[in-house]
Specification:
The chain has four helices and seven strands. Helix content is 19%, strand content 23%. It has 196 residues and is of the alpha+beta class.
Length: 196
C-alpha cells in the first residue's frame, strides 16, 4: 500500500524516537505491535562486545600498575578521596581517542603511557596511548596488540604503531559501531548530523 510523503516522514520520526506505528515506545528490533517494518534497518551484523579487562598505567621508569576488572560483571571501585578513582574515567576516555587528556596533572607527571586490555568477541586486544607532556593537550602516539590471548605489554615494547585516527578506527571495528550520519528529509532546513 502506497504511503504519502507526510505519512512516511511521520513514521520515520516515530521510529527515530523509538515509537512503533501505534505510538507506543518500542526499543526492540521487532516491534511488539507486529506492524512496524524493520526492513529499513541496514545493519545486519551480529552484535559486538568489548569488555575492559585491565586499566594500566606505565611510569617513566617502566613500572606497571594494572587495575584488573572482572569481565561480564559490574565492577565497583572504592577508596579514599583523592586516590585517583575519578581519573580512571579520564584514562578510559583518553585511551578511546579523546582530543584532550583530562587526566589530572599530578598523575600525568608520573605516567608515560596509559593502556587498556580488552576481551573482544574473537580474542583479546591491548591498546596504549602515550601520556602527553605538561605543555601538550594530547599525544598521537598509540600502540596496539591483538590475538587470541594478549597480555599487558611490557613498557619497553610500547611505541607508536598508529595514531588516534587509526586507534579510533580499530575500536570502531572491534565494537561494531560505525559512523552515524543523519540526513534530513528533503525540504527540511536542518543540516546533516554526524556522530562517531
Amino acid at each position: 500500500v502506497g504511503k504519502s510523503r507526510p505519512e512516511i516522514a511521520a513514521r520515520i520520526q516515530r521510529r527515530s524516537a523509538g515509537m512503533c506505528e501505534e505510538g507506543r515506545v518500542c526499543r526492540k528490533m521487532v516491534c511488539p505491535c507486529g506492524r512496524c517494518d524493520d526492513s529499513a534497518s541496514t545493519d545486519r551484523s551480529p552484535s559486538m562486545s568489548i569488555q575492559i579487562l585491565d586499566l594500566v598505567v606505565y611510569s617513566h621508569d617502566g613500572r606497571i600498575r594494572a587495575l584488573p576488572l572482572r569481565s561480564g560483571q559490574v565492577n565497583i571501585i572504592t577508596g579514599a578521596g583523592k586516590t585517583g578513582k575519578s581519573a580512571l574515567i579520564s584514562i578510559v576516555d583518553y585511551c578511546f581517542g579523546a582530543d584532550e587528556c583530562k587526566v589530572p596533572g599530578q598523575i600525568r607527571q608520573c605516567v608515560s603511557w596509559f593502556g587498556m586490555r580488552f576481551q573482544l568477541r574473537g580474542g583479546q586486544a591491548f591498546i596504549a596511548r602515550r601520556c602527553p607532556d605538561a605543555r601538550a593537550r594530547s599525544s598521537q602516539d598509540c600502540f596496539f596488540a591483538v590475538g587470541d590471548e594478549v597480555s599487558i605489554s611490557a613498557a619497553s615494547s610500547l611505541r607508536a604503531v598508529t595514531n588516534t585516527k587509526g586507534l579510533i578506527d580499530l575500536l570502531r571495528d572491534w565494537s561494531g559501531i560505525s559512523d552515524n550520519l543523519h540526513e534530513p528529509l528533503p525540504g527540511q532546513t536542518r543540516r546533516p548530523l554526524s556522530a562517531t
